[in-house]
Amino acid sequence: MKTSYVYFMTNKNNTVIYVGVTSDLKRRVFQHKSKTYKGFTSKYNCDKLVYYETFQDIKLAISREKQIKAGNRKRKITLITTLNPDWTDLSEGWLFDV
């Protein structure tokens, strides 16, 4: 099985939270940072990875993404602050040119 991820991206002021799912977290974060695709994260400058969960089954990851998206902002903030209280960019040091 290929590892999959549910992840949160935010902007520099932590005012917007984007929830996504991917099977290649480093590549996907690079795409968000470089604004490869025009959409929500490029429009709202979501270029900071602040949270992610790892899954061994993409179906479980997609199910978790839907569960998180169905929740409110407060629950997303709680998830982030539990593991990343300073909202630091978890992709810092991953060595990509943006």
TrEMBL record:
InterPro entries: GIY-YIG_endonuc, GIY-YIG_endonuc_sf, UPF0213_domain
Record domain GIY-YIG: where: 2-78
Entry-linked SUPFAM superfamilies: GIY-YIG endonuclease
Domain of life: Bacteria
Family from the record: Belongs to the UPF0213 family.
Name this protein carries in UniProt: GIY-YIG nuclease family protein
Organism name: Formosa undariae
Upper taxonomic lineage: Bacteria, Pseudomonadati, Bacteroidota, Flavobacteriia, Flavobacteriales
